[in-house]
Structure formats: structure tokens, C-alpha cells
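Field reference: "sequence" (input) and "structure" (output). Example, Purine nucleoside phosphorylase:
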Amino acid sequence: MEPFKFQAEKDVPYFVIEEWENAFPHLTVGFSARNKREDMNCRNYAFHVGDQPERVLSNRKKLASLLKMPFSAWTSGEQVHGVHVQAVDGGQKGAGKDMRETAVQDTDGMITGETDLLLAAYFADCTPLYFYAPDIDWIGVAHAGWKGTVGGIGQNVVSCLQEMGADVGEIRAAIGPSIGPCCYEVDERVIRPLEKILADQKALHEVAKSYIPGRWQLDLKKANAKILEKSGMKSQHILVSKWCTSCDEDYFYSHRRDHGETGRMVAWIGKKE
């Protein structure tokens, strides 16, 4: 069953993880959707000439209001396709909410135990990873492109939560919409480090299929799930979306499909009083 459920409210299209919000009512957790009519671009920085920073800022504020979270809670990492995970406290609340320069620098993953702090990360094909450790009530989000995936950013988030006192057997993870194996072909520079981190030929063959010598169709979502299982997480605690951001043009921006000229969705997770 697809864990990310689409809904639209006040002209804002988005997905929620109903299972988590029902089980843990103090959480708000989801993924924004594309809106061709309104343009719900939540890009983490103005990059293209046609981008409108004021529109991006308006969209973020609109979404925060819908979630009943103050915009001052919106907190982002810089996202450099790395594997650094930062524990965020109240002093960093609001980092990156209005510009990349104020974001938590050199950071693709964040965790926090703070309430009324909304962790936000941006996507247009890369894989969003969400985390919740119910035994210590800490949350996390990570940006996992192929570099972050093979670099083990998912494992790094799990390790950081364990350092905070979480039992790895209790940690929940959700892997959100991203480009699917139907649309994502890679070469050996991706497969070889993936082979190394998985250290399991069977697992590798489950996530990457080769139909042309030297080329593979890679399932980034499934690869991240396998890596999280290797970190000690229980498979039943890992939710995996089936949505492909490249295929589903009505719902998602896609860097690959749109040849780089596209917006960004935002993945968020926060705790409310």
C-alpha cells in the first residue's frame, strides 16, 4: 500500500504519511506536490533566471500556515549532495527559511528533538528520507541523491539517532517519492560504490537491473531501504513510496525529465505541542 497519500487544501497540493500522523498525532510529516496552475515551487535557492524568489517564499509560508506551524520554524540544510547529518537545536530554528546562505551549511541531513521546529529538505528526483525515533521522540530528514545514497547518509542519520539514545529496533523510516528505476539509468561510477556499501550481491541485483552492458536501471528508494536494514533497522519499520517523480508529471517536478529547468518539492517533518 502506498504510504504517501495525496490531498489538496486551500489550493496547496501535498502528500502526507497518514500511518505516521495517525500513530503519532503530534507529528506533521509530508511532501509537497507540483501545482501547474499555481506553481508550488519551494526551491532551496534561486538558480534559474525565471525563478521568482518571492514566489518561492510565498509558497513556503503558505505551506507552513496550512501545517499550522509558524514560518519561523522552517529549518533547512544547505544540501551539497554530501552525507553530513546535523543535530539541530532551538538556536538554529529558522535557518535557511528565506535563503540558502542562512541554511545549516554543508548539511544534507538533520535531526532534532525540538518541538515547533520544522525540518525541511528539497527535491526534484533525489530521495527524501524521513525518520522518527519514538522512544526518544526525535525526528529527522535527509536528502539522498545517488551520492548521498552510496555514501550512507541514511546510516549516518540512524547512527546519530542512536547517539541520542534511540533504540535502532524502534526507529521508523519513510522513503518518499523520487525517480524510479523506470527512468533512472546509471553507470559503474554509481554501481561500484553501491556494491561496496551493500556488500551483498543479492541485494545489489534486487535494486539494480542491467539490460545494457555497463548500464543499470537503479531503484534508489529500494537501495536506501536495503542500506537502512543493514544499519539494524527492522524492515517492517521502513515505508517505501512507489511514486516516480519523473513519470508523474502532474504531481512532481523532475530534474531529469525537465532537463534541469524545474522547481523543487519540499519534504518536511516537525513536532507540535
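DSSP finds seven helices and 15 strands in the chain.
The chain has one domain: 4-182+220-271.
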